[in-house]
Amino acid sequence: MLDSNYHNSSFATFVKRTAKDTPHSKITLRVEEDNEDGIVSAYAYDQFEEFLDFFSYMDRFEVEEDADTAIEEYQLDIEITK
Predict the structure, then answer these.
(1) Side by side, which strands form the sheet with 26-33?
(2) What is the enclosing helix (H) or strand (E) of 11?
(3) Measured at the alpha carbon of residue 53, what is the angle toward residues 47 and 58, in degrees to the nearest 5?
(4) What is the pLDDT at residue 33?
(5) Sign (positive/negative) of CA torsion 9, 52, 41, 67?
(6) CA distance 50 to 40
(7) Contact predicate 31/63, CB 8 Å
(8) Helix, strand or coil for residue 38?
(9) 7-45 burial, b if ≥16 CB within 10 A, otherwise e?
């Protein structure tokens, strides 16, 4: 199954769609901690700073692992910021 390597299946769907529609896209993921439990949100923006989507994660490490998987699988240019 495609999404099995991702912590967030909606992120997997997003990167698959992005790679299909605009290959080699630059995506910036801005990661913000939502609460004291450590839940984080990753907000995706394109190279023009246009908001694309957002995703919730248990921690920043899951975001980084999913971004690494997407870079490897789809050759997207993904940068993670705070």
Answers:
(1) 51-57, 40-45, 26-33, 77-81
(2) helix 9-21
(3) 115
(4) 86
(5) positive
(6) 20
(7) yes
(8) coil
(9) bbeebbebbbebbeeeeebebbbebeeeeeeeebebebb
Tokens standing for 52?
């694309």
Position 1 scores a pLDDT of: 43
Q: What is the pLDDT of residues 7-48, one digit of tens each?
A: 999 999 999 999 999 988 999 999 998 777 778 999 999 999
Average pLDDT over residues 53-82: 95
What distance in Å separates the CA atoms of residue 57 and residue 61, rounded to the nearest whole number? 9
pLDDT digits (tens, 9 = 90+) for 14-23: 999 999 999 8
